[in-house]
Amino acid sequence: MGELSLHVSNGKIFVWNAEDAATLREEHRIVGKLIGCLPRAPRQNVYLGLPLELLPEETSLLLDKGVAKLVDDSKSLQKPYPEQVQELERFRQIRYEQQIELCREARKKELYRNFNRVKEGKIAKHRKQLEEHQKAGETIDDSDLENVDVDIETIPSHGIPRLEKKHAMVQLFTETPWVDHSDASQPVPWTYPQTELEQLRCRVFTDLWEKGHFLTSGSKFGGDFLVYPGDPARFHSFYIARCLPHREQFTALDVVAMGRLGAHVRKTMLLCSLGDNNQIHYTSLQWSGMS
H or E element: which one contains 103? Predict the structure, then answer.
């Protein structure tokens, strides 16, 4: 399998291809963060979809391992050719015709599920017709009213409106199908990390990743990364990793605050620094609960 495409847009890194996003998670333990709304549920933010935004540390790791390549996303915003517009219209027409059949099948299933109600409706209609005949002075026999015949096989042929094109769902591409990035001749520069803290974050991320952990952003818990023993979809994080320069000074109150923060969310605070021997050092803080 070739290199995965990481799209650069306004200094941020995105993955638009669903297969690439799945490969990153399943084969490379790179989780990222979904930030796109779901087409069928756009007014909620509990469940999100593509694109997948990557941390700069995740991006640097993938580039160093040769797993992915950067793609300039500005090439994806060019005006399409007339042939591409025609191809898109043909694609949408095919999807529309497929939706017609899917809509009919869904309507059939609904009618089958509500067969008893359909039969009751026909009986009610037949009763109303009998009452109208009675009012007109006609002599009728209503003894077989409850035996109105409703053939279940004929139900699907009635009450199934044709799906209008304006009501059909329109498929939105998560990745442009018109641009081929495989022959990109101009490499996209990647300058992260630059500062000492950024270098430390990359070193810590890579070290924990190579130890077999999954990592995500830890900003919502007051850290740099959340460290998981397995896929975050199945496990809670064990550690809140916070990257600190080796000789940075902080007070006892800072230590207490970090320890209590970890205890409050039932995680261990992991202080990460780069020692004089150029090795990563880890210090864990756990609140004992003693007053």
Answer: helix 82-113
pLDDT at 174: 67
Which one is catalytic: 7, 69, 213, 228? 228
Residue 236 a catalytic site member: yes
**Active site residue: 7, 69, 213, 267, which one?**
267
**CA 182, 73, 210: angle at the middle one, nearest 5?**
70
- In 3D space, the residue among 32, 58, 76, 107 whose CA is nearest the CA of residue 18 turns out to be 32
pLDDT in tens, 54-64: 999 999 999 99
Instruction: Tell me which of 128, 236, 264, 281 is the catalytic residue.
Output: 236
pLDDT single digits (tens) 244-260: 998 888 888 998 889 88
Looking at residue 94, its amino acid is: I
Q: What is the pTM of this model?
A: 0.74
CA neighbor of 214 nearest in space, from 204, 200, 227: 227
Residue 77 to residue 57: CA distance in whole angstroms:
27
* 92-131 core/surface letters (b: 16 or more CB in 10 A; e: else): eeeebeebeeebeeebeeebeeeeeebbeeeeeeeeeeee
DSSP state of 164: P
Full set of structural domains in the chain with CATH? 1-78+179-191 (3.40.1170.20), 82-167 (no CATH), 193-291 (3.40.1350.10)
pLDDT of residue 124: 80
